[in-house]
């Protein structure tokens, strides 16, 4: 299977240099990354919302090694909040944050990440929007959930992400499916050992459905992160069975993937949010997109060969 190999390459400096220098890389990166700066991403936001879509914005970058870099990541999000304020989109444009960017892996990282993320969440609330804390590898999740719980004391609209391939997630979902919660469910895109995660795609899909059922039957607000047509249809059926209105859950898909489906779901009356990443430190995010779907890797390979 190529997925685990690509995920391992996402941590390789040598592969980072090789892929960054490949002639066809920019064409493929531009498919998944909306731009490098706030100025470049604003037209993308306006285009999406003009089509009836919503967005969640991720300033990409995960290799934080100093407190100064973590502070710079915080400031990049605060700049984004300022621009969103001028657009006056409310919750149609929210933000997604990886706590690794905010210093979670550094010395005293839990406290540092909480201190850095709090002003962003506060600023988001001040302009009528919110933040979702992205899930990363399993070793970071206890810290992420603790920060999520702490932030929700003052900002109850703060969301979090759970990953279907982890054994722990069904229990996490039962805990999180409470009134006022916002929970995005995804399959998972990190290289995890068999001791903590399902390795078989069919088992991951089954777990996803079980967890989604828990969220839909709960009192929170489920956010279905998937491009899989079968899982989307199951989510719609669960919505009907649990009596949820179309604005009581939402679908989320990645920028650059199945764009026609984004518009179709919105036209049917669903809330459809596009996960839109931007920034210069795109490598880790890009590699996970390649690992998730073989077609993405084939597209990249053709681009490199034809541009060489």
Along the chain, the helix and strand elements come as: HHHHEHEHEHEHEHEHEHEHH
Helix content: 40-55%
Sheet with most strands: strand arrangement: 1-2-3-4-5-6-7-8
Extract low-pLDDT stretches: 299-308
Mean pLDDT value: 88
Q: Please state the structural category.
A: alpha/beta
Percent in strands: 5-15%
For the CA atoms, what is the radius of gyration?
18 Å
Please work out how many helical segments DSSP would assign: 13
Shape descriptor: globular
Describe this structure as you would to a colleague.
With 308 residues, the chain is of the alpha/beta class. It has helices at residues 2-9, 13-21, 25-32, 38-50, 67-87, 109-126, 141-154, 169-176, 201-217, 229-241, 259-267, 283-292, 294-307; strands at 54-59, 93-97, 131-133, 159-163, 182-186, 221-225, 250-254, 271-278. It has an eight-stranded parallel beta barrel with strand order 1-2-3-4-5-6-7-8, surrounded by seven helices. Helix 5 (67-87) links the parallel strand 1 (54-59) and strand 2. The longest helix is centred in the N-terminal third of the chain and has 21 residues, at 67-87.
């Amino acid at each position: 299977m190529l997925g685990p190999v690509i995920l391992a390459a996402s941590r390789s400096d040598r592969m980072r240099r090789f892929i960054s220098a490949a002639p066809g890389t920019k064409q493929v990166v531009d498919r998944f990354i909306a731009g490098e700066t706030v100025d470049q991403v604003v037209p993308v936001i306006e285009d999406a919302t003009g089509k009836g879509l919503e967005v969640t914005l991720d300033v990409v970058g995960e290799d934080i090694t100093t407190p100064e870099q973590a502070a710079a990541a915080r400031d990049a999000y605060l700049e984004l909040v300022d621009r969103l304020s001028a657009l006056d989109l409310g919750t149609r444009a929210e933000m997604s944050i990886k706590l690794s960017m905010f210093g979670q892996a550094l010395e005293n990282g839990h406290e540092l990440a909480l201190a850095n993320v709090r002003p962003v969440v506060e600023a988001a609330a001040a302009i009528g929007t919110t933040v979702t804390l992205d899930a990363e590898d399993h070793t970071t999740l206890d810290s992420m959930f603790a920060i999520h719980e702490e932030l929700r004391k003052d900002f109850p609209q703060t969301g979090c992400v759970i990953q279907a391939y982890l054994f722990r997630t069904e229990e996490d979902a039962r805990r999180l499916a409470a009134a006022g919660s916002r929970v995005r469910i995804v399959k998972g895109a990190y290289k995890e050992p068999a001791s903590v995660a399902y390795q078989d795609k069919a088992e991951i899909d089954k777990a996803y459905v079980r967890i989604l059922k828990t969220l839909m039957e709960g009192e929170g607000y489920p956010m279905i992160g998937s491009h899989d047509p079968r899982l989307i249809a199951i989510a719609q059926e669960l919505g009907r069975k649990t009596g949820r209105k179309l604005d009581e859950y939402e679908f989320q898909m990645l920028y650059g993937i199945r764009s026609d489906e984004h518009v179709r779901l919105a036209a049917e009356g669903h809330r459809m949010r596009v996960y839109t990443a931007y920034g210069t430190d795109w490598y880790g995010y890009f590699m996970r997109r390649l690992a998730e779907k073989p077609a993405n890797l084939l597209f990249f390979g053709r681009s490199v060969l034809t541009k060489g």
